[in-house]
Design goal:
The chain is α+β, with helices and mostly antiparallel strands. It has one domain: Orthogonal Bundle (Arc Repressor Mutant, subunit A), CATH 1.10.10. The chain is 34% helix and 15% strand. It contains six helices and eight strands, in the order E-E-E-H-H-H-H-E-E-E-E-H-E-H. The strands form two sheets. A six-stranded mixed beta sheet has the order 1-8-6-7-3-2, with no helix packed on it. Strands 4-5 form a two-stranded antiparallel ribbon. A hairpin with a 4-residue loop joins strand 4 and strand 5. The longest helix is centred in the first third of the chain and has 14 residues. The relative contact order is 0.21. About 26% of the residues have low confidence.
């Protein structure tokens, strides 16, 4: 599935229907300056120009500090609320539905409402810190927190684990073939549905 997984900053929050709100991801966000320049990823190698990875945020405090610095460099603010939502996603370590995030927020702030969570998710998507995983209608932290535009996201349909694959040569070839059919793509990010290793072994 080729899809658009990002949203323009400042877009209105979604007040209802947390797990089914349409249009949460529409406009592409600016590409990180390091994209396509051979920047280092904290991912396992899978070829000369293609590699994949899973989350490596063992130290959540360090990850939040990295995200905060990333936002400041771009003139944005990782407010306490945004930081809390990002922290919940980091602790989850996998794609998490918005209502689950809301339930967790209410344990800390009982008055939290759906728009509160959506506003934070909208922002985190807009700066590239979070992916919206459309195949399971959930959200996951970008694994390196530097807004790399990973072309492929492998998504476990059972547990929500997400692997990011940076395969520019493969992606370019695929997009070229698709556009040759006359289709105009909204995004060059592809979601691949399946089972992670742990879930596959349990089936």
């Amino acid at each position: 599935m080729v899809k658009n997984s990002s949203r323009a900053a400042g877009a209105p929050a979604h007040a209802a229907g947390l797990d089914n709100a349409p249009g949460l991801a529409h406009a592409p966000v600016p590409v990180h300056p390091a994209i396509g320049t051979g920047h280092d990823h904290t991912h396992a190698a899978a070829g000369a120009d293609e590699h994949a990875g899973v989350p490596v945020h063992a130290d959540i405090g360090q990850a939040l500090a990295l995200a905060d610095a990333y936002c400041r460099e771009r003139g944005e603010s990782l407010t306490p609320l945004r930081q809390k939502v990002l922290s919940l996603l980091l602790k989850s370590g996998r794609a998490t539905k918005a209502y689950t995030l809301l339930d967790e927020m209410r344990k800390i702030h009982p008055g939290s409402a759906p728009p509160t969570v959506y506003r934070a998710l909208d922002f985190l998507q807009s700066v590239g810190l979070v992916h919206r995983i459309e195949s399971i209608n959930a959200f996951a932290v970008c694994h390196d927190l530097t807004h790399c535009r990973h072309g492929f996201l492998a998504v476990c349909q059972s547990c929500g684990a997400v692997a990011e694959i940076d395969a520019p040569a493969t992606l370019h070839s695929l997009v070229s073939k698709i556009e040759a059919t006359g289709f105009k793509l909204a995004s060059d990010e592809v979601e691949l549905k399946g089972l992670c290793g742990d879930c596959a072994r349990r089936t």
